[in-house]
UniProtKB/TrEMBL annotation:
Coiled coil: none annotated. Keywords: Membrane, Transmembrane, Transmembrane helix. The chain crosses the membrane at residues 52-79, 94-115. This is DUF1003 domain-containing protein. Residues 11-20 have a biased composition (Low complexity). It comes from Sphingomonas spermidinifaciens.
Length: 182
């Protein structure tokens, strides 16, 4: 099935299922469904190390992780400074706690960097797609402007807007990037 048929099929399914809500067309609902399917497929195709890093990063970024650390570190500090009944002091200088926290920080920062690298790669792909869609829309609008001018000329209606000639010109992406990079 080609992309056009797939798009039409998804739009029809979305319309049948009532996915198009007020303010959202069936085509928009189908586009959202395709994006969700793509993200799910990307998750399924992620390597084991990426999935593990993502799971660890998700857990360490949760309030559950914070609560566990408060309990663990608070209990450790209390047991070794003021003492707890039935718990002998096992790290009175808290050196072992500092070492454990340092090692944990090293590993957690590595997992966060792995997740950030994956997110940056996905963001770069989305930015490229956005650029391609923008350039395609610009090209299509340029063609529509030329067609509109031809229709206006055929009907004897002249375009008075001096900017219209500029609208009909294709944008050169390299020139724009060179200008932005200055």
């Amino acid at each position: 099935m080609d992309d056009g048929q797939n798009r039409d099929t998804l739009a029809a399914e979305a319309a049948r299922e009532g996915a198009a809500t007020p303010g959202m067309t069936a085509t928009l609902a189908a586009n959202i469904a395709r994006l969700q399917e793509r993200r799910a497929a990307e998750q399924r195709h992620a390597s084991l190390s990426e999935r593990v890093a993502e799971a660890i990063t998700a857990f360490t970024g949760s309030m559950t992780f914070v609560a566990l650390h408060l309990i663990l570190f608070g209990g450790w500090i209390a047991a070794n400074t003021i003492g707890l009944p039935a718990v002998p002091r096992f790290d009175p200088s808290l050196v072992v706690l500092a070492m454990a926290a340092s090692v944990e920080a090293i590993f957690l920062s590595t997992f966060v960097l792995i997740s950030q690298n994956r997110m940056a790669a996905a963001a770069a792909r989305r930015a490229d797609l956005d650029l391609h869609i923008g350039l395609l829309a610009e090209h299509e609008l340029t063609r529509v402007a030329a067609l509109l001018e031809a229709v206006a000329t055929h009907l004897g209606v002249g375009a008075v807007d001096p900017e219209f000639a500029e609208v009909k010109r294709d944008v050169e992406p390299e020139t724009v990037l060179d200008t932005l990079d200055g």
